[in-house]
Amino acid sequence: MLAQLNLGDGQNLGTADGRIALDCSVRKTRQGHYVISTTDFFFPLVDSPYLQGRIGAANVLSDLYAEGVESCDFVLMLLAACRDMPEDQRTICTKEMVRGFRDACTDADTCITGGQTVLNPWPIIGGVATSVVAEGEFVPSDGAQVGNVVVLTKPLGTQIAVNVHQWRRHHQNQNNNNNNNKFWKKCTDENIVTDDQAEEMMHQAVCSMARLNKNAGSIMVKHKACAATDVTGFGILGHAQNLVENQKEKVGIELHTLPLIAGTKQVNDKVLNFQLTTGYSAETSGGLMICMPKETAQAYMEELKDLDGTDSWIIGTVIADEKQQARILEDVKYLEV
């Protein structure tokens, strides 16, 4: 959206027109280094304020890691305390959000050096992440080549998992929201999702959202990645389209495989259409979507599995396309993971 506002001065690196960057602002300094920076924030999607803080930090840092940097030099924290909470609850909630954010930054080997705090109707946490690198220490996001494969480092379906959790919790609490009760009733009456499956779905989503993309980003240069972005609010196809439009070459992306958190496709198909299978279901703190040579992709995924203990997948191919379109193939394969 910012790109449509005619912002920027044409000097951002890693973008087709040098204006507003895809994930981060990448600027060459007068001294010859590169400053890579990004900002983001996170609304409450989970029950735990501590986990909200961790996910908020992971979400902020993810854009930085999509540039293939090994480390973040510092973070400024943006914090909104909820003015509508009783003071004692606000104090506990705010402290826990900050603790989760700080712990995630510590895990990322970075530190919080400042920020800003306000009162707000919603408790929100986020920040600004910055890395200073030399040439060759990051991956510009505009270098995808025909024949590259597309690797995804986290499964899709976090939006659905969170919503199912909310339906279930509201039903258990006898909340009067008829829609939530209707959706959860359909899940159980038609044996689409059980209580245990809903719990496991949410557990997998939280683990995914809270996991840093640090290792995924730090080995991109080593494995000759050509371009990348992270998958968040626009969904997998939305971000694939943004990525191809950002390329120097006239390329497109064909997606042939979609890895999904187990159970989310059933909910999407039988309860409420979140556009998961059409590629537009929003993700929170999603994985990196990386274009890289076919020859290096398997080694990349194996090393990432050793570092994170989690799978990644080849989900598509970069093709020549004058119209620069991303699409999901008709015979797409869905992997429940």
Automatic annotation (TrEMBL):
Q: Which GO terms describe its molecular function?
A: ATP binding; selenide, water dikinase activity
Residue span, PurM-like C-terminal domain: 145-326
PurM-like N-terminal domain residues are: 23-132
Its GO CC terms are: cytoplasm
Biological process terms from the Gene Ontology for this record are: selenocysteine biosynthetic process
Keyword Amino-acid biosynthesis set for record: no
**Keyword annotations of the record:** ATP-binding, Kinase, Nucleotide-binding, Selenium, Transferase
Know the name of this protein? Selenide, water dikinase 1
Protein species of origin: Seminavis robusta
